[in-house]
Automatic annotation (TrEMBL):
Function: Component of the exocyst complex involved in the docking of exocytic vesicles with fusion sites on the plasma membrane.
BP terms from Gene Ontology: Golgi to plasma membrane transport; intracellular protein transport; vesicle tethering involved in exocytosis
InterPro entries the UniProt entry points to: EXOC6/Sec15, EXOC6/Sec15_C, EXOC6_Sec15_N
Protein keywords: Exocytosis, Transport
Record GO cellular component, one term: plasma membrane
Transport keyword on record: yes
Family the UniProt entry places it in: Belongs to the SEC15 family.
Ranges for domain Exocyst complex component EXOC6/Sec15 N-terminal: 44-213
Keyword Cytoplasm: no
Domain (Exocyst complex subunit EXOC6/Sec15 C-terminal): residue spans on this chain: 412-761
Region of interest (Disordered), residue spans: 225-269
Official protein name in the record: Exocyst complex component
């Protein structure tokens, strides 16, 4: 049973070996060797091999004849193959021999086509590289020529178009590496050019501004040429009317003359063409740098840098020199620099797109305007020369007109000029104050002698004086006023002209100019001239003759005030009767001066009277008075007579007032002399002498030293003294005491206190005289009675005084 299974297993193994790939029989054979029947399997295997050998031998025997036939046929084929081989070898040799030339030609053709292909490739590459080289050569040429903006464009085209098409050659790599460095170089060089440009315009802004202001001046002259001719014709007509109507302007200058108007000679200016700012400045560095930075994508950086640098330059330009106020040239350089700065900025504004904008320029202008006005206010305040102020005003007007032509608002400048007008007026007042004082100091205060008609016409041309009676008198003759009248009147006209010159070109209406001139003239009259006249009147050592002449002079000046009104109206073309027109205060000024002179005359007369009274030497204890007036009083009367003789040219009321004032002062002073405390006793003899002196004064008053008094009006100045003296000389105390207080009282002007004082002095004198005559005897009866009467009157006077005080 076991052997049967073993045999079956061995059979299975053999079939497996026969049917299985030899590479996979390892496990099968291992199972044989692992078992115990190895010998049996080997026997079985040997038997199977023998069976297969028998089958192979049978197979070979069955096919052997076919194999032999195949070998025989193969041997035949081998012979034929050998023949064929020889033929092929021979044919190949012939073919090789015949193909050598062809191979040579083919090799040559191959080499030629390879060269052609290389040439084509080279041409193609060169076609792409040559533009790069040409472009780079062009770039180098532009860099050498400093044409940086085209170079930058070339560089951009080289980088974006040419190099990518050329390929990755070494020289292309070198070029690519150089491109950033070239860009940086171009940017640095253009920035350096910009810095040079900024430095150049900073240095030459003075010249640029000067040129711009000359252009503006020429343009204004051209625009105003026709207007100037019309003004000249109008000025000639005004002078003709003024000469024929008022004879004021015979020798005066025309305020609208070519010299005074500030208008340039247009024909001369047209001969010399003035270059513009663009002709003086090369703006190409700015444009080039702007384009370069725009291409480089750094336009904002460039704009910020440019504006920052220009702001710094603006601050430097707007900083005035410390001595700018000393000369007009200092102001001119200052204005030229500012104008040059803003002319450049205006040109940049209009020739570039966005480098500077209107807001930026306006901001700079506001800064410049504020600093310029502040600087002008500060420096002009140091100026004391009216001519320099006037030249400065004309320069500021030209400065404003120039910048206004470029579109900058300049209203604040004209407002500042109106402020400077007040300063100019004050300086004029100081200058005219010196002129007036010099005129008054140098005047001889004597009527002007006129020896010929020509001299008379010259003075009449300076001062509007008309006197038909004086005209009829033969030469030589004398004008009533002194030299300072025509000189002062001429100075008033010159002052008006000076005010008019300042008001020109300020864009003011005729009414505003007229009002300004009138207000300034009023200041001159009420402040300067008035003070000068007061100074001339109040100064020491001024005599009565000088004061009289001052009154005469101011009277004529007062009469000429309406001529000044007409003169101002003629030069301003504003009728004097215009509504709200300012009136001149000349009349009141000269009236005040005349009144001051009159008061000074009164004061001087009183002082002279006091000086004479100081010479009075009364013997208050004299027993008997003289028959003639005292010497001092005779001298005083003689002085008053000679003085009042000089008053013939004065207005009647002035002479009368002076005479009345002198007489009243003399009367009051004589009364004070009689009543003064130092005089303790007054004898009847002294009173009689005093009465003689008063009568001499009354004779002087009655003689009428000044015409115009009605009756004995002048005698009223001595009425107080006369009634007092009559009361004592007539010893009419009963009448005085009985009628006191009545309107019809004979001694109405006698004051009880005055009478009491003088009576006490007389009483004391009588007592002293009695003691001297009879020291140890009793008073005589009549003296005792008189003394009792005096005591009674004294008591009644005291009662009367007490009653009045109660």
């Amino acid at each position: 049973m076991a052997s049967a299974e073993t045999a079956a297993e061995h059979e299975r193994i053999l079939r497996e070996i026969e049917s299985t790939d030899t590479n996979c029989i390892g496990p099968t054979l291992r199972s044989v060797y692992d078992g115990q029947e190895h010998g049996l399997f080997m026997d079985k295997l040997e038997g199977r091999i023998r069976n297969h050998d028998r089958e192979i031998e049978k197979m070979c025997n069955h096919h052997f004849q076919g194999f032999v036939d195949s070998i025989t046929e193969l041997l035949k084929v081998r012979g034929e193959a050998q023949k064929l081989k020889c033929q092929v070898t021979e044919t190949n040799q012939k073919l090789q021999n015949d193909g050598k030339e062809l191979l040579t030609s083919m090799d040559e053709l191959r080499q030629c086509r390879l060269q052609q292909r290389n040439i084509a490739t080279t041409i193609d590459k060169l076609t792409h590289c040559l533009p790069v080289l040409e472009m780079y050569s062009k770039l180098q040429e532009q860099m050498r020529a400093k044409r940086y903006y085209p170079a930058l464009r070339t560089l951009e085209q080289l980088e974006e178009s040419c190099l990518p098409q050329a390929g990755s050659y070494r020289f292309c790599g070198i070029m690519s590496e150089n491109i950033p460095r070239l860009r940086t170089h171009i940017r640095d060089v253009s920035m350096s050019d910009l810095k040079d440009f900024l430095e150049s315009i900073r240095k030459h802004s003075d010249k640029i501004g000067e040129t711009a202001m000359k252009q503006a001046q020429v343009q204004i002259a051209r625009d105003n040429a026709v207007t100037s001719q019309q003004r000249s014709a109008s000025g000639r007509r005004i002078r003709k009317e003024a000469c024929s109507g008022t004879e004021v302007d015979r020798t005066g200058s025309n305020p609208f003359s070519e010299k005074d108007s500030g208008i340039l000679d247009v024909e001369d200016e047209e001969k010399d063409e003035i270059p513009g700012a663009q002709d003086l400045v090369d703006f190409s560095p700015v444009y080039r740098c702007l384009h370069i930075y725009t291409v480089l994508g750094a336009r904002d950086t460039f704009e910020n840098y440019y504006r920052k640098q220009r702001r710094k330059q603006a601050r430097l330009v707007l900083q005035p020199h410390s001595n700018m106020h000393e000369t007009l040239e200092g102001y001119r350089r200052y204005f030229n620099q500012i104008v040059g700065f803003f002319v450049v900025e205006d040109h940049i504004l209009h020739t570039t797109q966005g480098l500077v904008n209107r807001a930026y320029v306006e901001e700079l202008w506001e800064l410049a305007l504020s600093k310029t006005i502040a600087a002008l206010r500060t420096h002009s305040s140091y100026c004391t020369d009216p001519d320099l102020i006037l030249d400065l005003k004309n320069l500021i007007v030209l400065f404003a007109d120039t910048l206004q032509g470029y579109g900058f608002p300049v209203n604040q400048l004209f407002d500042m000029l109106l402020e400077m007008r007040d300063q100019y007026g004050e300086i004029l007042l100081k200058k005219w104050n010196q002129s007036f004082r010099q005129i008054l100091d140098q005047d001889n205060y004597s009527p002007i002698p006129v020896a010929s008609p020509e001299e008379y016409q010259r003075i009449a041309g300076q001062f509007p004086f008309q006197d038909p009676e004086l005209d009829k008198m033969p030469f030589p003759k004398k004008l009533p006023f002194s030299e300072f009248v025509p000189k002062v009147y001429s100075q008033l006209k010159e002052f008006i002209y000076a005010c008019l010159k300042y008001s020109e070109d300020l864009h003011l209406s005729s009414t505003e100019i007229d009002d300004m001139i009138r207000k300034s003239t009023n200041l001159l009259l009420t402040r300067t001239l008035s003070h000068c006249l007061q100074y001339a009147i109040k100064k020491k050592n001024v005599g009565l003759a000088e004061l009289v002449q001052i009154i005469i002079n101011t009277t004529h000046l007062e009469q000429s005030c309406h001529y000044l009104e007409e003169f101002i109206s003629n030069i301003t073309n504003v009728p004097p009767d215009t509504i709200n027109a300012t009136k001149l205060y000349g009349t009141s000024t000269f009236k005040d001066a005349r009144h001051a002179a009159e008061e000074e005359i009164y004061t001087n007369l009183n002082q002279k009277i006091d000086q004479f009274l100081q010479l009075a030497d009364y013997d208050w204890t004299a027993a008997q008075g003289g028959a003639q007036a005292s010497d001092y009083l005779s001298d005083l009367i003689a002085f008053l007579c000679s003085t009042f003789a000089v008053f013939t040219h004065l207005p009647g009321k002035v002479a009368q007032t002076a005479c009345m004032s002198a007489c009243k002062h003399l009367s009051t002073s004589l009364l004070q002399l009689l009543l003064e405390g130092d005089v303790r006793q007054v004898s009847m003899g002294a009173l009689q002498q005093f009465n003689v002196d008063v009568k001499e004064c009354e004779r002087f008053a009655r003689a009428g030293p000044v015409p115009g008094f009605q009756g004995d009006t002048l005698l009223l100045a001595f009425i107080d003294l006369r009634q007092l003296l009559d009361l004592f000389t007539q010893w009419d105390w009963s009448t005085y005491l009985a009628d006191y207080g009545r309107p019809t009282c004979k001694y109405l002007r006698v004051n009880p206190q005055t009478a009491l004082t003088l009576l006490e002095k007389i009483s004391l004198s009588m007592k002293d005289t009695s003691r001297k005559n009879n020291m140890f005897a009793q008073f005589r009866k009549n003296e005792r009675d008189k003394q009792k009467l005096i005591d009674t009157v004294v008591k009644q006077l005291r009662n009367l005084i007490a009653t009045n005080q109660a």
